[in-house]
Amino acid sequence: MKFTNIQHVFFDLDHTLWDFEKNSGLAFASIFEKNRIEVALQDFLEVYEPINFNYWKLYREDKVSKSDLRYGRLKETFDALKMTVSDEEIDRLSVDYIDHLPLYNHLLEGATEILEYLHPNYKLHIITNGFSEVQSRKMESSGIDRFFTTVTTSEEVGVKKPGKEIFQAALNKAAAQIEESIMIGDSWEADILGAKEIGMAAIFYNYSKKEFSADCHQVMEMKELVNFL
């Protein structure tokens, strides 16, 4: 099924185009070496990733602040690993992590190819809950900034996805109408339900390939978007 009325394609960034897990692992490897934190990287990541996922959920729901997220996800991980790391060290690691994260530029498979395919025929945009100072650097480092007309972050709007306001702000910035726009992202709650709430079409990027029965257009690989756009 091809969407015939779409002029504007809105993407999420992390876990949709930018390979967050891979780049995050590389960033942690670098800062642990720099700060002489002795922990097996894979052991750390296995504990950290679900904790980080939960903190981002709390952050979307305005239950923790940006600083709570940055500190808490590391503190809980080290505690779970029974490692003694001082608050001062955690604060230093949290800053180093944000500094190092955008230095790595791996994209998810097919991301560049689909952007090159879409770019000549659509206006492309980003809507992200990620932190403003980091997201632009990620896009520049990975070379995808050239594809996008606008970038809307939750920090600039003051509302996180799935809130209606961030989607409306992104539409306004893009000078786009709802009926000619579509959202593509990996988060069912933030990206898909958020878009549907304001009447925007959406495609769920099920990159983890989990069984999914909800009534929604979905792709498991980026190249499948050619079936819709």
Textual characterization of the structure:
The protein is built from nine helices and six strands. It has a six-stranded parallel beta sheet with strand order 3-2-1-4-5-6, with helices on both faces. Helix 9 links the parallel strand 4 (181-185) and strand 5 (201-205). The termini are close together. The model has no long low-confidence stretch (mean pLDDT 95). The protein is elongated. The protein has 229 residues and is an alpha/beta fold. The relative contact order is 0.17. The chain has helices at 20-35, 41-60, 66-80, 87-100, 111-118, 132-142, 154-157, 164-174, 188-197, and strands at residues 8-11, 123-128, 148-153, 181-185, 201-205, 217-219. The longest helix has 20 residues, at 41-60. It is 48% helix and 13% strand. It has two domains: 8-19 and 107-227, Rossmann fold, CATH 3.40.50; 20-103, DNA polymerase, domain 1.
What's the quick description here?
The chain has 229 residues and is an alpha/beta fold. 48% of the residues lie in helices and 13% in strands.
